[in-house]
Structure formats: C-alpha cells, structure tokens
Amino acid sequence: MLQTATACLASASLLIWALLCAIQDSQHKRISNWLTLAPAALAAGWLLWHGQSLTGNAPATVLPGLVVALALSLPGYMGGSMGAGDVKLLAALALASSPLHVLGSIAGAAIGMLAWTLGGPALWQRLPANARHRLKLLDPSQKDGLPYAPFFFCGLLTTIFILA
Q1: Distance set, CA 115 to CA 29, 57, 111, 122, 149 (Å)
Q2: Burial readout 34-70 (b: 16 or more C-beta within 10 A, e: otherwise)
Q3: Whole-angstrom Cα distance, residue 101 to residue 10?
Q4: HEC-encoded secondary structure of the chain
C-alpha cells in the first residue's frame, strides 16, 4: 500500500513539474534552469540516497534511460531543432523515472506534434482570441518551430496512465 501511494505521489509530482515546464515553454519558448537542473539534481540525489528513482526503479534501470534521453535529444539540440532546456528536461525525467517513461514521453510528444501539425490549424482558429494570444508560440503557422515541453507533457501524461 505504501509503495502504491509513493508511486502515485511521484507520478503526480512529475506531472506537475512537466506542466510547469509546458506552461513556461509555451509562453516563452524557454525552460528555466530552475525547472530543469534543480529537479535533475533532486532526482539524482534521491537516486543516490535511496538507491532507486522517484518511481521506484533501480539505478541499473535509470542509467540506460538517461543514455536513451541523451541519445535521442542531443542530436536535435546539435541540429538546432531542440533547445538545451528540452535536453535537460528529458535528462531530469530519466533520472527521476525509467526508460519506459522516457521513451513513452518522447513517443507521445512526437505523436502530439504530428497531430498538432495536421489538426492544429483548424483547432487554432476555434480558440478564443485571448487563448491564441497567450499561446502564440503554439500557433501552427509560425515558422520558428513549436515549443517541445507542452507536447512532452502530453506524452508523459499518457505514459503515466499507460504504466499505472
């Protein structure tokens, strides 16, 4: 029973953190180091102190997740399609969870971005003007690329529900 409560609290904490990152990224196309490096340091400290991630995975499971997160995000960063905050976001998730969380979140984000690219223009026009103004960086017609964290949040949310 205690493990279930701890897992629920960890999942809720990850979702709140991802939501804060998504809000900041959707409004500024930037995620502060306080929202990426601080949680990564906390997750690493938890992992070292307790011998497991926040979601209860052993270090031998967490480290491959970190490798996957970096292997899938660093090329995008070096190619200019991802920001440094996105790389740190995925690294922090890897330290706090498992490779399945990382892969599921990345896959969910990719599906969400594809869906937004295809269906976003029609939905965007139906949003109230004040919502379009506040979320102008999510405008499907902009040429600078979309912020990643809002789609990452959707991917993490879906992954947590699937893994629960």
Answers
A1: 20, 32, 6, 11, 15
A2: ebbeebbebbbebbeeeeebbbebeeebbeebbebbb
A3: 12
A4: CHHHHHHHHHHHHHHHHHHHHHHHHHHHCCCCHHHHHHHHHHHHHHHHHHCCCCCCCCHHHHHHHHHHHHHHHHHHHHCCCCCHHHHHHHHHHHHHCCHHHHHHHHHHHHHHHHHHHHHHHHHHHHCCHHHHHHCHHHCCCCCCCCCCHHHHHHHHHHHHHHHC
Question: What is the total count of domains within the chain?
Answer: 1
Q: Once rounded to an integer, what is the mean pLDDT over residues 76-90?
A: 96
> Per residue in 104-149, pLDDT tens?
999 999 999 999 999 999 999 999 999 999 888 999 988 888 999 9
Q: Would you tell me how many other CB atoms lie within 10 Å of the CB of residue 115?
A: 13
Q: Which domain holds residue 54?
A: 2-163
Identify which of 55, 59, 41 has the alpha carbon closest to the alpha carbon of residue 4.
55
